[in-house]
Structures are given as structure tokens and as C-alpha cells.
């Protein structure tokens, strides 16, 4: 099949490549750019492991073709750490709240959680659960993930620990 040229920004770097029209965005990110922090769980839009941001909003990158991302701005889990290597507040919160076991779902959970908090800066538990519906974890039972998202929201707002006592 004839390849098509695309130009897009991924984690702050602009790439121009030729891709087959059937290439999924997640395939392009992983196989062509080496962004293997974005994972593939189901390949059918169910699990959320492949979640990245497209122009600042979370999307499932197994649901899009790479050609559809032409001209857009993509951020992966590998693009959210600071230049000096400091973790993003949401990554820090997942780490500190023990919100992972095998970790397979974690990159997608974190990308979805950042989008969630951008939209709901101080989410209650129901809001967190509702907005993580499209991201599946087989391990943790979600309790610590919910706590992590709320802690991450406080970190992103610059007020870490401020409401920690209320959870007990
Ligand atoms: S791999 Fe994309 S939703 Fe599961
Ligand atoms: S930590 Fe294992 S699937 Fe989420």
C-alpha cells in the first residue's frame, strides 16, 4: 500500500515520516519512534493502556491511524517528565500512593488522569471513577489509583497533602 507523508509533534519534537494508511498511531509511536512507554493491551479501545494526549486531550492511540495525527501535537508518558528528569506531579502521586502493581496500565492511567484533572481540578471519588472507566487495571482494585489521582490533583494545583487527613 502506498505510504503517506505525515508531520506531527511528539513529546516536543517534530517528526516527518512516511507511514502506511493502516498504521495505528500506537504502532507508529512504539515501532517507528521507539516510544515504548505507551503500551498495547487490547488493541480494541477497551483497556486504555495506549492512552496519549492529542492536542492536550486524552485519546486511545490504538483507535486512531497515524495519518489522522498529521499536523497535531501528541504527548506520551515519556513526554510529561520535566527536562531535568523530575516526575510529573501525577507520576509522583501514583508512585507515592502505591497505585500500581504490575504497572502495565499505569502509563495510560496517568495520561487519562492528567486530562481528568485538567477538566476537574478537585475531583471527588465518583468523578475519578467515572473518568477512569475506559482504563482497566487487572491488579489493584482501583482504591489506590483513585487516591493517587486525588493526590495528583492536589500536587498539580500546588497544594500537596492539603486534604490527606479527610480520606481516613
Ligand atoms: S490498547 Fe488501546 S485501549 Fe487497549
Ligand atoms: S497495575 Fe497491573 S494492570 Fe494495572
Can you give keywords for this protein?
5 helices; disordered C terminus; binds FE2/S2 (inorganic) cluster
Q: What can you see in these coordinates?
A:
With 168 residues, the protein is of the alpha+beta class. 31% of the residues lie in helices and 15% in strands. The chain has helices at residues 25-32, 89-96, 106-119, 125-131, 143-157; strands at 4-10, 13-19, 51-54, 57-60, 73-75. Strands 2-1-5-3-4 form a five-stranded mixed beta sheet, with helices on both faces. It starts with a strand and ends in an 11-residue tail after the last helix. The structure holds FE2/S2 (inorganic) cluster (2 copies). One FE2/S2 (inorganic) cluster binds next to loops. Residues 100-106, 137-140 line the site of one FE2/S2 (inorganic) cluster (FES).
Give me the secondary-structure topology:
Elements: E1 4-10, E2 13-19, H1 25-32, E3 51-54, E4 57-60, E5 73-75, H2 89-96, H3 106-119, H4 125-131, H5 143-157
Parallel strand pairs: 1-5
Antiparallel strand pairs: 1-2, 3-4, 3-5
Helix pairs in contact: 2-5, 3-5
Bound molecules: FE2/S2 (inorganic) cluster (2 copies).
One FE2/S2 (inorganic) cluster (FES) binds next to loops.
Shape, please? globular
Summarize the biggest pleated sheet. Answer: 5 strands, mixed
As a percent range, the share of helical residues equals 25-40%
Assembly type of the chains comes to single chain
- Succession of helices and strands: EEHEEEHHHH
Radius of gyration, whole Å: 16 Å
In short:
The chain is α+β, with helices and mostly antiparallel strands. It has 5 helices and 5 strands, in the order ββαβββαααα. One FE2/S2 (inorganic) cluster (FES) binds next to loops.
Amino acid at each position: 500500500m502506498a505510504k503517506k507523508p505525515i508531520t506531527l509533534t511528539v513529546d516536543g519534537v517534530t517528526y516527518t515520516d512516511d507511514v502506511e494508511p493502516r498504521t495505528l498511531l500506537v504502532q507508529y509511536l512504539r515501532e517507528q519512534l521507539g516510544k515504548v512507554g505507551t503500551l498495547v493491551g487490547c488493541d480494541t479501545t477497551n483497556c486504555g493502556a495506549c492512552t496519549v494526549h492529542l492536542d492536550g486531550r486524552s485519546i486511545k492511540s490504538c483507535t486512531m491511524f497515524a495519518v489522522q495525527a498529521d499536523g497535531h501535537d501528541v504527548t506520551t508518558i515519556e513526554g510529561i517528565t520535566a527536562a531535568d528528569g523530575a516526575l510529573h506531579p501525577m507520576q509522583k502521586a501514583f508512585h507515592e500512593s502505591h497505585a500500581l502493581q504490575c504497572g502495565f496500565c499505569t502509563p495510560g492511567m496517568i495520561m487519562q488522569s492528567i486530562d481528568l484533572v485538567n477538566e476537574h481540578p478537585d475531583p471527588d471519588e465518583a468523578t475519578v471513577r467515572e473518568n477512569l472507566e475506559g482504563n482497566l487495571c487487572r491488579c489493584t482494585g482501583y482504591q489506590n489509583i483513585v487516591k493517587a489521582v486525588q493526590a495528583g490533583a492536589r500536587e498539580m494545583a500546588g497544594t500537596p497533602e492539603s486534604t490527606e487527613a479527610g480520606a481516613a
